[in-house]
Specification:
Blueprint: E1 16-18, E2 25-27, E3 86-88, E4 91-93
Amino acid sequence: MATSRKTRDRPEARSWAETDDLEAERLILHEERLEARTVPDVVGHVRISKDVVEEDKTLDVDVTSMDVATSRRPVDRAATDGTAPYQEGDTFVIPVIEERIQMRKVPWVVEEILVRRTPRRETRSVSAKVRREVARIETVGDVEEAK
């Protein structure tokens, strides 16, 4: 590993270091270490949408209507509500009542969809080339190494 000119003068970047012992010099060896970390990455989405489906529904509703049959009898009392018979001049008016069906649409909740995201842990192997410095000691001439 070569050191650049900018880092050559920094003590931690020099391969050769001076020691307190004037007779000895020291070679510093470096290596690269592999570190792994995780980063979130969106790999897909879940999309939930709604469609409106129309269908015909039929309801059976009980309704009441009136058929009219007339008969005469004498009565002596006052009418109390708007559906009671009344007289207009010489004409006697008898209201005929029938129930009418009124429909309205009411929103109704029939289903919910719950979505849960569950983290799943797994171990994956990752590889990369890393470099490190290894000392190669060569002796030139008649040099004997002390062990």
